[in-house]
Amino acid sequence: MKHHEIKQLLPEVLKRTDQAGSPLYGILEVMEILTEPIENSLNNLPRYFNPYTTPEEFLPFLAGWVDLDRFFIPFHYQSTTMPEYLQTIESDRLRELIVTATQLSKLRGTTSGLQSFLEIATGLNGFEVEEMVSDNKIDPIPFHIRINAPKAAKIYHSLIERIIEQEKPAYVTYTLVYKLQ
Question: For the segment 21-68, what is each residue's pLDDT rounded down to a tens digit?
């Protein structure tokens, strides 16, 4: 709030004493300076809730709000004590996942949902989910899927496995295969 705006909130008897050099004038100037950073933050508040415009340090909070924190550690945090599956993820990938989180949640447990999640999280296309998987005897394996991943996705191996474990139906087993090309 500006000096004159704060002054308008005061009783009339105090408003008359607001003159340059008076204690009230100094107090109102200090109040203006102290409230400026807070006002700037409040004026820019919508930017924090848009995954495309939020600062990187706020992304982990947004990810937690849409239940994505179970897959990733913040991309700026490095530690050797973290479980292997908690790989870091680039900020642009995390932003896309946050934006599509509600759609992915609706598709959870489906082939298209798993495929979309893997493609968005890794930034790579070409994931395929086979539902009719056969064993060596040509008999189908009940409740088993095969995920064919692009060769370039190997660097995200533990992340991919974590996503598959979380997004496939609980009763389904899976095999992860990387394509040769």
Answer: 999 999 999 999 999 999 998 998 899 999 999 998 888 889 889 988
Q: What is the C-alpha radius of gyration for the chain, rounded to an integer number of angstroms?
A: 27
pTM of the prediction?
A: 0.73
Span 70-120, pLDDT tens digits: 776 544 455 544 444 444 678 888 899 999 999 999 999 999 999 999 999
Task: Kindly report the three-state secondary structure assignment for every residue of the chain.
Answer: CCHHHHHHCCCHHHHCCCCCCCHHHHHHHHHHHHHHHHHHHHHCHHHHCCCCCCCHHHHHHHHHHCCCCCCCCCCCCCCCCCCCCCCCCCHHHHHHHHHHHHHHHHCCCCHHHHHHHHHHHHCCCCCEEECCCECCCCCECCCEEEEEECHHHHHHHHHHHHHHHHHCCCCCEEEEEECCC
